[in-house]
Write a structure and sequence with these properties.
CATH class of the domain at 232-441: Alpha Beta
Structural class: alpha/beta
Number of helices: 20
Helix content: 40-55%
Largest sheet: 7 strands, mixed
CATH superfamily of the domain at 232-441: Vaccinia Virus protein VP39
Radius of gyration: 46 Å
Strand content: 5-15%
Number of strands: 11
CATH topology of the domain at 232-441: Rossmann fold
Length: 442
């Protein structure tokens, strides 16, 4: 083939190639040694082995459950999945978080501390409900929130919040705006006019609210917080404190009188009668007993009412006391002659008045006892080591905060004072917080 023929053929081939390119086709490239395509595997196949097809590689990957086309992590740790919105946390990060969290997870439960810190709110919820008459209103029957609010003159939304808190405290039940009712405890002790009503006592205790706010400064400086609560002449201003606890105190009085081997009560003086529970218990034990209830005039009405309730009022005489003198200096004298009583009760007066006043009061009671007569000293007394303290430490602190000289004394201190004034200490019995110490006049 000549040169002209070769050139013509080349030109003609170029023309045909251009025509095919104009039609949208790529120009065919010819290589003497076309390169073999290698599948995207971690390792290339050897040249002498057949190259697997793409479908074969994918099928093998699915069979081996291997990720395809993903880089292999050489030094990275495997991910740790945590339920945090889908976030992946590496093992070192999770370990660091676990080490930081461990001290908090291993710490004791702070729940009791949090409840203690919020205790003031619970006391205020109870006091507010008593002041508003919530329990007395529900004592007349189930009430809805709106009806009770209208009856008590309260805002219904605010009352609903108060009732929900009372339900949490176990004092009302229902949880329904249309049917609030009392629980067993609130019906027994919180309905005004009821025999077991303790609302007046709670009210007087809450009156100490401001006095307790000075505890920090009191601990720094020492001494007592002061206040008139411990003064015998101020007893009439705290009827809830000295008479309002009758529903609890009367049970203790009857139990102790039954338990002690007391002689016939005879002529009885209840020196600071309060609501009269000890005179009532002694009168019930001895049908021949005659009781003189002696206390602040403002408190004698409560004692009279309780004596009538127990059917012993005809054997009671109610004598107003004059506690206006300085008890600690022996200025308080009962209006009775020496040795005119067979039994004298000194109940719940010593711890409020303080040790010095208690000594004078025991001496006055000893003066009024006939020879062979019985003295009953009733109070909260400090227990010997190893015996349960119950709430005595809190009572002692309360006396430190709210009185001028009040204190919880040991039984041995009372025994020593009785011995000093001619009374031989005999047996004692403790029920709950209350200790009763007996003595015989020499």
């Amino acid at each position: 083939m000549g040169t002209r023929d070769l050139c013509a053929r080349g030109v003609d081939g170029a023309r045909h190639a251009g025509t095919r390119q104009d039609r949208g086709s790529r120009a065919r490239r010819c290589h003497l040694h076309p390169a073999q395509r290698t599948p995207r595997l971690r390792h290339r196949t050897r040249p002498d082995l057949p190259v697997p097809g793409r479908r074969t590689v994918r099928a093998a990957a699915r069979a081996q459950r291997l990720p395809l086309r993903r880089p292999v992590r050489v030094h990275a740790e495997p991910p740790v999945h945590e339920p945090r919105g889908g976030r992946q946390v590496t093992a070192p990060t999770a370990a660091a978080e676990s080490r930081a969290l461990t001290p908090y997870e291993d710490a004791p439960d702070p729940g009791p501390l949090l409840a203690l810190n919020f205790g003031f709110a619970r006391a205020r919820v109870l006091g507010t409900a008593v002041d508003l008459g919530v329990f007395t209103g529900l004592g007349r029957g189930p009430r809805g929130t709106r009806g009770l609010a209208a009856e008590l003159g309260c805002d219904s939304a605010a009352l609903r919040a108060l009732l929900a808190a009372l339900e949490e405290l176990g004092l009302v039940a229902g949880g329904d705006d249309e049917s609030w009712t009392l629980t067993e405890a609130s019906r027994a002790y919180l309905v005004g006019g009821g025999r077991g009503y303790l609302g007046d006592h709670f009210t007087d205790v809450l009156e100490e609210w401001e006095q307790w706010s000075g505890l920090t400064e009191l601990v720094r400086r020492g001494g007592h917080g002061g206040g008139e609560l411990g003064l015998p002449e101020a007893r009439g201003r705290y009827p809830g404190m000295f008479c309002g606890i009758f529903p609890v105190a009367v049970r203790t009085a009857f139990r102790v009188v039954r338990e002690l081997s007391l002689p016939a009560a005879g002529r009885v003086l209840d020196f600071a009668a309060g609501s009269g529970e000890w005179g009532i218990a002694l009168a019930a034990a001895d049908p021949e007993a005659r009781v003189v209830a002696h206390d602040d005039p403002e408190l004698l009405g409560a004692a009279r009412g309780r004596a009538e309730e127990f059917g012993v009022a005809e054997r009671f005489r109610f004598v107003p006391a004059d506690f206006s003198g300085d008890v600690a200096k022996g200025a308080v004298k009962a209006p009775f002659p020496d040795g005119c009583f067979d039994t004298v009760v000194l109940a719940h007066l010593g711890r409020f008045a303080g040790p010095a006043a208690t000594e004078r009061l025991v001496g006055e009671c000893a003066r009024l006892l006939c020879p062979g007569g019985t003295l009953l000293v009733v109070d909260v007394m400090r227990q010997e080591p190893g015996r349960p303290a119950l709430h005595r430490p809190m009572i002692a602190l309360s006396l430190l905060v709210n009185t001028e000289a009040g204190a919880v004394q040991e039984e041995s201190a009372y025994r020593a004072v009785m011995q000093k004034y001619g009374v031989t200490a005999k047996e004692s019995v403790t029920h709950g917080l209350i200790t009763v110490l007996t003595g015989e006049r020499r």
